[in-house]
Each structure stands twice: as structure tokens, then as C-alpha cells.
Design goal:
The protein contains 11 helices and 26 strands. It is α+β, with helices and mostly antiparallel strands and 504 residues long.
Amino acid sequence: MSEDVVIAGGGPNGLMLAVELGLAGVLALVLEREPELVPRNRANGLIGQVVRLLDRRGLHQRLSGSPEPPSPAPTFVFGGFPLPLGELDDNPLYVLGVPQHRVEQVLEERAIELGAEIRRGHELTGLSQDGDAVTARISGPTGDYRLEARFLVGADGGRSTARKLLGIGFPGVSRENVVSRLAHVTVPRELLDERTGGLDLPGAGLVPPFVHHRTERGVFAFAPFPDRPWVVSTMEWDPDADDRSPMTLDELRASARRVLGTDVPLRPPTGDGHLRRLIGGNTRLAERYRDRRVLLVGDAAHVHSAIGGPGLNLGLQDAVNLGWKLAAELHGWAPPGLLDTYESERRPVAERVVMHTQAQSALLSPGPEITALRELFGELLQNPHNVQHIADTMSGADVRYDLGGAHPLVGGWAPDLDLDVDGRTRRLADLTASARPLLLDTTATLAAAASGWTDRVDVVAVRADAPAMLLRPDGYVVWAADADPDPAALREALTRWFGVSRGS
């Protein structure tokens, strides 16, 4: 059997890549070792630029159940500190409270709509490659088999088989003394604070909801989701933690008592619940994201603390950055070196996520010196410029690729715009659902200059109080001009990112 792209791993990152490839006219085969899609409590929502990205693919409405576009969150937390985001002039931190299993369900549905094949119960077990193809060895429900593909992408998590088969190193650090416990629970109503929705606990005071509440002994969090089971979690620093016995609600209750210094009468949830204990944690980055015809995305390329919820924001945008470049290579119009920009652009972003998650973990650690550091950090957050910097970092709004060009928009995420297209007001997101490169011509002069690329670039004449812009499929600006645009500069950008013109 021969395929264009085989994706090892059918989690959100692998499925997002299958969606992007399908939009670009490339059919992907996704291998997922789990025999069926089951609820997995790995993430409670989406945070950051990825929310706006899904809006620009027409997926936000499917996930949110609302026709309204996303809006930024008024508050969020960093290292246990509340961030007053509503006070910012430009709040970049968007939140979509959808559990990971629902994200996977929607992405799988969309991938199948676009022609992807999802093989559940199939797992990559071996691979070899030459200059033309990758041969994958696979274990399936009816036995082992092989298939050949032009490219293979490892989206198979932190213990990635694809990465290990390639011999790609995964250096970093491990922490063995951190113990995280989590459970779905109910809590007596009389302990709820009506004003904040948090817990009013005798002996501990008010514990706000949806924040990491640090004490000198650990961290406690209470998440009273309005339409899902409530969650209580703790984090402690215990080098002697034992993972041999199953997690219990009594164990979580004892942990909460140690952290808060008072009892929290936790009770089982109504219906099915989830109990989880994690001991230790890893922060690691793959030595490289590509080995010839095999590439890595998501946790296969990087693992880090989940604090602040950056995992899906990072991994899904990896997939979107890679998807159009891989499709360009398969369609034969990719300019030289385009596929290599996947690693050169995305690895520094992963490094920043590692940095800020490690910083948050440090701010939540026990000890009087950390308490002193938190006092200073709290003073710094009185400055709105510092809050803006942290919000930009957490959301990924600070990502700026080196794409050439002097215009200040080049290299950054295209701003959300309301555009007049043929007398109708359209959002930029209305024009990007196809995942094609997009030229917004606000001067009505650029169609001729771009005529040689219309087989792969959409050219839309718009009226807007904004510069003319050329956007990559992942939403980043590669060329912009305020007035009197230079057609030669536009053609240079088109050639650099989208190959030579038709007929050249």
C-alpha cells in the first residue's frame, strides 16, 4: 500500500495535521493505537492563539456551540497569580473551555470529512526510509503489515515510537519529587462562596475558583465547571510518594488537608468520575524535528509542565505550521528549504513554552525564598506593561518569525479585521477557512502581479482601513504594504514562500 502521508498518533495534534493536509488536497492516513475514541482528562480547554486559529478554520463554532467569534478572557493565572487581563489595551489571551476528548472528536469528524482515513487499533512498530519513501511497519487488530508513504509524521506523544525509532535524542530534565493528584468531586454547597464561586473553608479562608492556590506546603485548585463534573487537584513536593496503589478520593482529601491545613469534605461526583495521580514530570525537547522524510509534532517533539495549559496551543500550531509546507512539497511547488522552516520556526516557540512553564512551576514551589520571590513578582504585576508581556508570552501572541521584509506586520500573526468584500462585511476568519495562502488587496492594483500564483494563492480585493497583506495558511504575514505597493516586492514574497509562478 502506498500513501502520501502517514501520521502516527490520532490525538489532537495528529488529527489537526490530517485536517490541514485535507484542506490542502492531501489525503492522510492516521494510525491510532487506541481502539476507540474515549474521554481522556488530559486538558480542560484551549488557551491562547490556537483559539483564534480554530476560528480561522471554521472550527470554533463547532467546538463552542455558539455562532459568536471568540473573545479574550477577562482573567487568567500565571504561577498562581491572577492576571487582570481586562485592563489591557490589547488582551491576547483567548480561552475555550472544551475538554480534550471533545476537541479530538471534532477534529476527527473534520479530518474524515476531508478524506482522511483513521485506523484505530493500529500502531507504528518500525520504520525505514530512503530518498523517495518511508516504509512503516504496523501492528493492527488482524496482524502486522507494512505500507509505504512519501512522508511519515510522528504525533505519538512524549514516549514517541517514531522519535525512538529514528534515534533522535530527547534531552531535558526530570523532576521525581512532584506529586499531582486530581479527581472529579462534589463539595457541600454550604462551603461555596456565592460571590466568587470558590470555597470558603474554615481554617483556610477563601480559596478562589480556577486558580492555583499556593501555600507553604503545596498547591490546591478547585474548578467548578458549570456543565461538567467539578475538579479538585493538589500538587505536593514529596520525594517518597508511592505509585504502586490505585489513587483514591481519601488520598486526595488527605493531600488537600496537608496543603490547606484544614479538611475539605470531598465526595464522589454524580455519575462517573476520574481519579489521577502523577508522580514526577519531564521537560524535554527533541534534538531535531526532522529526519529526512519523517517529522515530529506536538509532544513527540517537546514535553513540559501542563501548568497554564500551553500544550494544545503549542502542539496544534505545530501541526498547522507543518501542514501547508508538507502539502506544498507533495504538490511540487514548495520553494527550496520550505520544509526545513518548520523546525527553525517552531522549535524556538517550544523553547519559550518550556521557559514560562518552568518559571510558573518555580513560583508555585514551597519555601520561604519562593514566598519572597512571589512578593516581588506580585509588585511587578502592578505594572500593566508586565501583565501585557506575560499575557503575550502565555498566549503565543509574541511569536514573530523572521520572514524578511521591513513592514512591522511581517512575521507576525495577521490581525483580526473586518473587511468589505463586494459590499459585504466579512471577518478575516471568513476568508481563511480553506487554509490557502491569501492576498488581501486593499489597493485594487495587485491582481496582475499575483496572477501567476492563483492556482495556490487566493487573491481577494477588499476595502479596509489596513495595509495590503499576503498571508501564509498558518495566519502569519509574509508581505505588507501601506500605500503604493511595489509589485516586484510582492512577487518576490510570493516566490519565496509559494514557489515560482505558473508558467515560469
